[in-house]
Amino acid sequence: MKAYAKKDFPVDQIRRFLEPGPIVLVSSAFNGKTNIMTMGWHMVMGFQPSLIGCYIWSENHSFDLIRQSRSCVINIPEVELAAKVVGIGNSSGRDIDKFAEFGLTALASEKVEAPLIAECYANYECKLADDSLIDSYSLFVWEVVKAHVPAAPKYPRTIHYRGDGMFMISGQNTTRWRSGFKPQNL
Known about the structure:
The protein has four helices and eleven strands; from the N terminus they run ββββαβααβββαβββ. The protein has 186 residues and is mainly β.
């Protein structure tokens, strides 16, 4: 096993080693207004109920729509949407209709007001489960109340942000360590 020689590293850049998962598009709706935001800071927090924690900056246009509606849809894009994902993240819903600007299709959700994005691999309809961390940390805790996922492919090619303008595309899957894996310890 290799031992690494290490040097000091800026703590404000550690995110590139702790990437939490794929970049997602969060759609929201409130009082007839819709928006989409690009988000990379999220984490699974529970399984039953299914809980997801998301950091949403208070200055983001979606913040108020999401906070007031107490719901959203977390949409998982594949790599083919990468340019649109970046464009959505670099623009504001205060200035444009992101569905129209980026040619994305809004579909009605079953359990929340926010729309699904048809072109995304998966869509998770979410209702706010815990708002106690919003004022302190801009952390929303969502319960996934409905999930929409296709039968294939089983493992989508998602995009992941590594910081400093660097992205990673999900890669090769392996079952190499499956025999030693204990899901109850995850």
